[in-house]
Design brief:
With 82 residues, the protein is mainly alpha-helical. It is 73% helix and 0% strand.
Length: 82
């Protein structure tokens, strides 16, 4: 029988921690992953307002151009699969 790889163990550990989280059990370890909680919050605040701030600074024509380019990229990816 083949031995289990370390990837399998990591996946099992992740699955156990996810199940514990969903069950409302306390998860072992730091929720911030060793990062400064204040820095994490500042980064989150910047990320939350980033899209809106960018959209507000763009002209309607530029927003339309960006949206058109994004739609073309999405549809071209679909055409390649077919």
């Amino acid at each position: 029988m083949p031995k289990r790889s370390s990837r399998d163990r990591e996946a099992d550990q992740f699955a156990r921690s996810l199940a514990a989280y969903r069950a409302g059990e306390k998860i072992e370890g730091d929720p911030y992953g060793g990062k400064n909680p204040a820095a994490v919050e500042l980064g989150r605040r910047g990320g939350l307002k980033g899209g809106r701030a960018r959209a507000a600074s763009l002209s309607p024509q530029k927003r339309t151009e960006i949206a058109r380019k994004a739609a073309e990229a999405r549809w071209s990816a679909l055409r390649k699969d077919v």
